[in-house]
Amino acid sequence: MSTETELPDEELELDDYREDEENSVLLSTHESINRDLNGEILKLERGYVELRLITSSEMVVDDQGLIHSGFIFSAADFSAMAAVNERNVVLVGSDCQFLSPVKFGDEVNFVARVRHKEGRKRNVHVEAHVLDIKVFEGEFKTVITDRHVLKLKLLENDDEAIQRVE
Predict the structure, then answer these.
(1) CB 149 within 8 A of CB 120
(2) Per-position pLDDT tens, the chain of length 166
(3) Per-residue model confidence (pLDDT) at position 160
(4) Which of 12, 21, 105, 128 has CA atoms 20 to 30 A from the CA of 63?
(5) What is the DSSP annotation of the chain?
(6) 49 in Cβ contact with 28 (< 8 Å)
(7) Sheet of strand 48-54, all strands in order from the earlier edge strand to the far edge
(8) Residue 152 has what pLDDT?
(9) Distances (CA, A) of 103 to 42, 69, 78, 93
(10) How open is the CA angle 138-143-147, to the nearest 5 degrees?
């Protein structure tokens, strides 16, 4: 019988990335993301992530069991954000290819590596495989902001925004 107090599943899930080991890397971004739909981090290092997405019935688009590519993209994006691992990292662009279809029940394994750093910009290369088949490859361009993207003041005033639209 264990002497440790067991935590409810929700608390365990929230604390998955907050280990007490001295050299461990803690997840600093996207902590509240739905891991059932975006994947579970298996390995987290500085500038590197391994993530697994197990496809589910919520992702299926037809009676053949095809998975919508948006779920693959979302897991790849989450992989890239976790590889950068800054609290206020945002995606500003991507160039990606869907190389093979993914079906219900597939286990999709993603690897994301930060390839280039320039100031606040990070470029992340992401690949995804189902078994030995590469199903996705992409380059994600990210920017690290001082504050949350929804709290940034992007334009000085509304008049300036109207002038830019005209």
Answers:
(1) no
(2) 444 444 444 443 444 444 445 567 898 888 888 899 999 999 999 999 999 999 999 999 999 999 999 999 999 999 999 999 999 999 999 999 999 999 999 999 999 999 999 999 999 999 999 999 999 999 999 999 988 888 877 655 555 544 444 4
(3) 52
(4) 128
(5) ---SPPPPHHHHHHTTT----TTPPPP-S-TT--HHHH-EEEEEETTEEEEEEE--GGGB-STT-BBPHHHHHHHHHHHHHHHH--TTEEEEEEEEEE-S--BTT-EEEEEEEEEEEETTEEEEEEEEEETTEEEEEEEEEEEE-SS-GGG---SS-HHHHHHHH-
(6) no
(7) 40-45, 48-54, 107-118, 121-130, 133-144, 89-98
(8) 79
(9) 21, 10, 20, 26
(10) 140
Six-digit token string for 161 = 């925004």
Phi and psi (nearest 5°) for 57?
A: -65, -25
Q: Hey, what are 24's tokens?
A: 């461990």
The residue assigned the tokens 């590519």 is 69
Is residue 76 within a helix (H) or strand (E), and if so which, with residue range?
A: helix 69-84
Q: How far apart are CA 150 and CA 130, in angstroms?
A: 35
Residue type, 155: L
